[in-house]
């Protein structure tokens, strides 16, 4: 199974940075970001969003 991004909603502050980086993968759901399509961008693009999350709320899940 390919690895997929996972967002810890308890950590997410709703800054929307990941949504702006890869909107086909992450979208806002209320006050937090959520994964709408784990295959909506390349691994590199998703990794960029993971690295840029200010609270490290996004991780890869195998
Ligand atoms: S970048 Fe991190 S804190 Fe900001 S909305 Fe995305 S998951 Fe939440």
Approximately how much helix is present in the residues? 10-25%
Biggest sheet statistics: 2 strands, antiparallel
Strands ordered across the widest β-sheet: 1-4
The 3D shape can be described as globular
CATH class: Alpha Beta
- Helix and strand element order: EHEEHE
Cα separation of the termini: 7 Å
Mean pLDDT: 96
Structural class per helix/strand content? alpha+beta
- Helix count equals 2
List ligands, each type once: iron/sulfur cluster
How many beta strands in the DSSP annotation?
A: 4
Structural domain count: 1
Fraction of residues in β-strands: 25-35%
* Corresponding CATH architecture: 2-Layer Sandwich
Q: What fold name goes in the CATH topology slot? A: Alpha-Beta Plaits
Question: Over all CA atoms, what is the radius of gyration?
Answer: 10 Å
Low-confidence stretches: none
Question: Care to describe what's here?
Answer:
- With 62 residues, the chain is an alpha+beta fold.
- It has one domain: 2-Layer Sandwich (Alpha-Beta Plaits).
- Strands 1-4 form a two-stranded antiparallel sheet.
- Strand 2 and strand 3 form a beta hairpin.
- The N and C termini lie close together (7 Å).
- Bound molecules: iron/sulfur cluster.
- Iron/sulfur cluster (SF4) binds next to helix 1.
- Iron/sulfur cluster binds next to helix 1.
């Amino acid at each position: 199974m390919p690895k997929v991004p996972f967002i810890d909603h308890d950590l997410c502050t709703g800054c929307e940075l990941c949504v702006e980086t890869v909107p086909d993968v992450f979208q806002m759901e209320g006050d937090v970001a959520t994964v709408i399509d784990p295959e909506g961008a390349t691994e590199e693009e998703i990794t960029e969003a993971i690295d840029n999350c200010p609270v490290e709320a996004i991780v890869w899940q195998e």
